[in-house]
Write a structure and sequence with these properties.
mainly alpha; 180 residues
């Protein structure tokens, strides 16, 4: 399984997805209070919430697969550190402190900045996709990998069963699949 794009991993993080869904519910509530003039905002909010849900599902599936893959490693292997979460936790706590420490004006300001940032990211993503449509470079799926065909091997090859039996335990678990 390949790692999803960074945008999907960030939006699919449980903390970010929860905050995005709460913000979306708050925006839908405001749209409901605003009447029919806010219909287009409600549609965009619902689309954003669906995108968040899909990103969350993809990111959690990748994290589950990654945990299973790392479980196949040798017993002496070290897992990666958790230091990358420190910056996100500091930013989240600063936003919470600003919202709690100030009145309704700060909440509206944070909400408007978050919506503006989401709109900018959406516009950037849209422009990148439009740019890819008009680019002449082939995509990764269209690229052809070179294949080398050897009619007669240089040295004798063992039987597939003998080769599998010679592998270490963690490789045999990988070949046979998880849980077998």
């Amino acid at each position: 399984m390949t790692r999803p794009p960074l945008r999907t991993m960030i939006l699919g993080h449980p903390l970010v997805a929860t905050l995005a869904m709460l913000f979306g519910l708050f925006m839908l509530y405001l749209c409901w209070l605003g009447g029919s003039g806010w219909l287009i905002m409600a549609v965009f909010t619902a689309v954003g919430m669906l995108a968040t849900l899909k990103a969350s599902e993809r990111a959690s599936a990748y994290r589950k697969w990654k945990r299973e893959w790392d479980a196949l490693a040798e017993p002496g292997a070290r897992p990666r550190g958790k230091s990358r979460y420190v910056v996100g936790m500091v930013l989240a706590s600063l936003v919470i402190l600003v919202v709690i420490g100030s009145g309704a004006h700060a909440v509206a300001m944070v909400a408007s900045w978050a919506f503006g940032l989401a709109a900018a990211v959406g516009l950037f993503t849209l422009m990148r996709r439009i740019g890819r449509w008009f680019s002449a470079a082939p995509s990764r799926s269209q690229a052809v990998d070179p294949v080398a065909i050897v009619a007669k091997p240089i040295m004798p090859m063992p039987a597939p069963r003998d080769a599998c039996d010679a592998l270490p335990d963690y490789c045999q678990r990988l070949i046979s699949g998880p849980g077998r």
